[in-house]
Amino acid sequence: MKSLAQRRQSAPSLIFVKALNRSRSVSREGCFSPISPEACPLVQSFMCHNRTFILDGHVQLKTGLQTQERHLFLFTDLLVVAKSKSHSHFKLKCQARLCEMWTAFCTEEVCEGSTDPERSFVLGWPTTNCVANFRSAEQKETWLSFLQSRIREEKEKDYPKSIPLKIIAKDVGTCAYSKTLSVTNVDTANDVILMALQQLGINGSEKDYKLWVISGREDAPYPLIGHEYPFGIKMSHIRDAMPHGSKHCACPRQLQGSFLTEQLPQELQCQFVLKPSRLAVCQQLNDLSQKSFKRKRSIINWAFWRGPGTHLDNAPLSSTSAAPGKLFGLLLTAICEDDNLPKPLL
């Protein structure tokens, strides 16, 4: 048994060891971690009587070739993405309603370069996809479990559960036409493609077509990978069109009438367009040239497809281009060595 004096002498050293371990932990994280998340001004600004703080943590968000250090704050109905300024101050970058979010594992479709599947998954909200890369497999599993659970619970509380969704078909057949489908809050983009093909009487699968989003909030049409929720994307636009006092609510009861139709202002409308996928068009070109090469679709690819315009007709997805199978007037077989594009183009 140590005497009281001995215990008093050893106390400072124990405090120092704990402080040293804590500082090492912070340095390993490579970012600021809030000492008490609930006391952070950013967290306090989102707290209300029907919202509870759940979890926070550091993450790397990767899109294409870009990697950003971010801090996530999870609430019962919201995910807040922030940039660390200090232990208690964070700059808000974006926020997403959980009922409009999704998770997936197609990391190669979203970012370039290798990612560890044990520590990463795809995290998205209208109309964003990014790879969330965590420090450990345990941290990744914790966040994935909480997010999936909260997204599922918020979708169960969603109102309404289904909405009419107009799908415009372009470059399918000889003319453009549309169908209005009843889409639920758990239907993925691939589900909607299959429903649209059935309603339009078109043969094919979800691999042959892509669903694009056109909205006033985007500079150009946005192609969906397939795991996203079109319901959540459209409802995000509708909720943002609501009066200020209710648009932040997860399920405002005013969501009916003109808000669920195309009677919104042009800048607030959200259109969905069905077009043949780039992979399908590439396959047609390959058949013509009797060559085959593998094309990986990623966030980098569609960034170049988007172009300067805001009309989907500007996106180079049309199967009726003036010179199919050619690049700058030359045949692909003439400029590709070993089925690879020239390095300057890559």
TrEMBL record:
Ras-associating domain residues: 161-279
Molecular functions per Gene Ontology: GTPase activator activity
GO annotation, biological process: signal transduction
PANTHER family associated with the record: RHO GTPASE-ACTIVATING PROTEIN 20, T-CELL ACTIVATION RHO GTPASE ACTIVATING PROTEIN-RELATED
Matches recorded under CDD domains: PH_RARhoGAP, RA_RHG20
PROSITE patterns reported for this sequence: RA
One Pfam family in the UniProt entry: RHG20_PH
Gene3D superfamilies associated with the record: Pleckstrin-homology domain (PH domain)/Phosphotyrosine-binding domain (PTB)
Origin: domain of life: Eukaryota
Protein name according to UniProt: Rho GTPase-activating protein 20
Species this chain originates from: Cathartes aura
